[in-house]
Design a protein that fits this description.
- By secondary structure, this protein is an alpha+beta fold.
- The longest helix has 27 residues.
Length: about 230
């Protein structure tokens, strides 16, 4: 329990909590493992738990009645999911699936709600987490309106880029190309055309989910529409 309380203290959501509050959450928390492709929960499921990602990545997705999907976000270590439904007690508004093997810390929602009722620091941390999520969604909505697909794709590639010497960089797409297409709200065919457009400019090469950026400055200027 002490080790788990220490882990919770490192997460931004609970970083300001007193040791006693952390220990209280650690007593009821459980570590859960899910495999790549496994569904953590679906839209309209009961909001029983707040999840904190210990390792791996999880995608948050909504689906239409016809089966079309839109990836709202891809979350990784240190991120949390389920804050909204945890607060209002309503069913899940979206689904969550493992992009790769994951370890999660699951905390009963009722325990977190009780903590928020008694600890202003915890309430503020959750409010900040929700504000950050809203900012991400606002940015995504703006990109959908103001940026064409190749520029949205360039921004996505740059978000996970690791610079290398000589003005190059390397990025790993979080999902398969079908998953990336769902994240950008386009078809697989449209995504392939956008990748080809960036490749033909000599800025990137693609090898599966690995993207090598040959001209980092040019791609940044293109994504920012400078």
């Amino acid at each position: 329990m002490a080790d788990l309380a220490g882990e919770l203290a490192k997460l931004y959501l609970f970083a300001e909590l007193a040791p006693r509050a952390l220990q209280s959450l650690a007593r009821v928390a459980r570590v859960r493992t899910i495999r790549r492709g496994q569904v953590l929960f679906t839209a309209d499921d009961p909001s029983d738990y707040l999840y904190l990602i210990r390792s791996g990545r999880v995608r948050v997705v909504v689906r239409s009645p016809r089966g079309d999907e839109l990836v709202l976000n891809v979350l990784g270590p240190g991120d949390s999911l389920g804050e909204l439904s945890m607060l209002d007690g309503q069913p899940r508004s979206a689904g969550a699936e493992a992009v790769e093997d994951c370890q999660l810390i699951a905390i009963p929602a009722r325990e977190v709600r009780a903590l928020l009722d008694s600890d202003p620091a915890a309430l503020r941390a959750v409010a900040l987490a929700l504000a950050a999520a809203m900012r991400r969604l606002s940015g995504t909505a703006a990109d959908l309106v103001f940026l064409d697909l190749p520029r949205r794709l360039a921004k996505l590639i740059l978000a996970d880029a690791k610079p290398r010497p000589g003005g190059t960089a390397e990025s790993a797409l979080a999902m398969s190309q079908s998953g990336v297409a769902a994240q950008l709200g386009v078809t697989r065919q449209s995504l392939n055309r956008a990748l080809s457009a960036l490749t033909q400019r000599g800025w990137i090469t693609v090898d599966g989910q690995r993207v090598v950026i040959h001209d980092l400055d040019a791609l940044i200027r293109y994504a920012d529409m400078e």
